[in-house]
Amino acid sequence: MIEYRNVRVALLGAGSVGSQVARLLLEHGDELASRAGAGLELVGIAVRDLDAPRDVDLPKELFTTDAQSLILGADIVVELIGGIEPARTLVLQALQSGADVVTGNKALLATHGPELFAAAEQVGAQLYYEAAVAGAIPIIRPLHDSLAGDRIERIMGIVNGTTNFILDLMDREGSTFEAALATATELGYAEADPTADVEGYDAAQKAAILASLAFHTSVPLAAVHREGITSVTIEQVRAARKAGYVVKILATAERLTDEDGVEGVSARVYPALVPESHPLASVHGAKNAVFVEAEAAGDLMFYGAGAGGVETASAVLGDLVSAARRHVIGGPGIAESTQSALPVFPIGTVRTRYQITLHVADAPGVLSTVAGVLAAHGVSVETVEQSAATEPGDGTAGTATLVIGTHLARESDLAATVVALRNEDVVVEITSVLRVVGA
Q: Which residues are catalytic?
């Protein structure tokens, strides 16, 4: 039997993911040791409350409330507390002590990533974070290693399972947003306070991480344009399906060149119309998917479980094995590549397409008036669909519905067009504005 040297592992947090990491580490220690070339010794689990109920029955002697002492006795620290503090302080302490850190903390990385990577580089430690984006799906390592020699042009991801579940339920079963959210909450996909998910905060954090990694530049969370799904209606979802689209909320990171020839990046989150033929349109339920467009490799799709305790634990353990191997081999950690230092462009510089649905007066010349507003803002019309007019009654004029699809145009020009349309007398109401992607 092969004898391995032991690598001491400290675990911070024993929630749904942390408890599964501990269980798998204890149950499959011998198998993991053969892969890592070192024994993975779980020396302790730091928690706030020793008596809190756990999802998994773990040895009580492993638990402690003294996280700092536990860190100082570890070679690798696994941080699964979540949030900013005390996670930031503990991760910095671990890195400064020379320990490698494995984390799944997207909020921490999106907010303090540059600080943490700098601390790791200073002492030759390594920060691993596969579990921070898209749960069990391997996307960080492919971007960091496998595609390091390629040029990433764009990433579009369904990176929040809760919102994908809600939109999918609206599309496939005709549920309203409110009913779909209630179902998601009942099934445990949505938290009691779903704000972070439905308003796009969670996806924005992941977009910042993906953009920073893919384009080798620092993309702060504040630079990520964010829109949620609370305003998406069942009427929009039905109209989208009728027109051959599916409504998805996407985290997009894209390489752009502005009108002055300056290259930069954009990171944004918003609901959009995805053609039924696009691979992202077929991502159902609470699943996640990341679609990568690379210059040499072409189009790549990564799909799987984006959340869940045992699923996310898989990504954590993969990083843990890599960290253990590094300890066996020796040498400093590999620093994050942010040398490109590309500017982060505001949303207004993005070129996209809009689908605008309007209720307009049923009168001669309305279509030419609407087309004139678009032309005045440099936006050209690609498609127009007009529904049957309603009959006038009770002193009100009849109305018709126009669905206008635009050609590619700058976001700032498209947004200004929508504002101008609202101010036109012939426009009774703008009922829907959605971007069109992947077409």
A: 206
